[in-house]
Design a protein that fits this description.
211 residues, mainly alpha, Four Helix Bundle (Hemerythrin (Met), subunit A), two-stranded antiparallel sheet, 2 strands, globular
């Protein structure tokens, strides 16, 4: 009985992460820059950080109790991608658009989050590429676990989202130069690390692709 309970806990934490991701999307969808439902920024940060915490915790328990499962191997990375890519889509969406109507004929538009749609597309393409290569490798019985670069990428993504939300909600980058510098530095580092982190997977999968 005890062993069955231990085997189920990591899976339950994975499902909790999915639920927290959905809560994050719902709460953040209520926000509109600069002041519509401003409380949603802080609530979204809490949901995101709790979801990231479940990711670290369920992995630790799965290794400690040797409680890995097919469900966990499939759903764990899927929930990570839903959380991160969904968050980036939200940050590049209409809730974070700033429009300057000083000149009604030529209004200026910017994303206060600093995350442009093309950045989200790059992240999505990288994830689809790695997922495809992993599926190919594992279909042939070859282990294709995450590399150190992939783990670093996830850490940067997990840090970038709540920090950008914090800056937008409390230290408006359009009003504070230092906030804009921090935001842009973090966002560009995250995007660059995400793209570069795909290279080791391509190298590892090259023999399969040639075959």
């Amino acid at each position: 009985m005890a062993s069955e309970w231990k085997r189920d806990v990591p899976n339950l934490l994975t499902l909790a992460r999915l639920a927290l991701a959905l809560a994050f999307f719902v709460v953040l969808s209520l926000y509109r820059y600069p002041e519509t439902h401003a409380w949603a920024i802080d609530a979204a940060i809490v949901c995101f950080l709790l979801a990231v915490a479940t990711d670290a915790f369920d992995g630790h328990l799965a290794r400690k109790w040797n409680a890995t499962s097919v469900f966990g191997r499939v759903m764990d990375p899927l929930c990570d991608k839903i959380l991160v890519i969904g968050a980036l889509v939200m940050l590049a969406g209409p809730g974070f658009v700033w429009i300057d109507l000083a000149d009604p004929l030529r209004p200026r538009r910017a994303l206060v989050s600093g995350i442009e749609p093309w950045m989200v597309l790059l992240v999505l393409l990288r994830e689809l590429l790695v997922t495809g290569l992993r599926s190919l490798a594992e279909s042939r019985g070859i282990e294709f676990s995450a590399s150190w670069s992939g783990k670093l990428k996830m850490i940067l993504q997990s840090a970038a989202v709540p920090i950008v939300l914090l800056l937008v909600g409390h230290f408006d980058p359009l009003e504070h130069d230092w906030s804009a510098w921090v935001r842009d530095g973090l966002v560009w580092t995250m995007v660059a690390a995400t793209v570069v982190s795909g290279a080791p997977y391509v190298v590892r999968a090259a023999p399969l692709l040639r075959a």
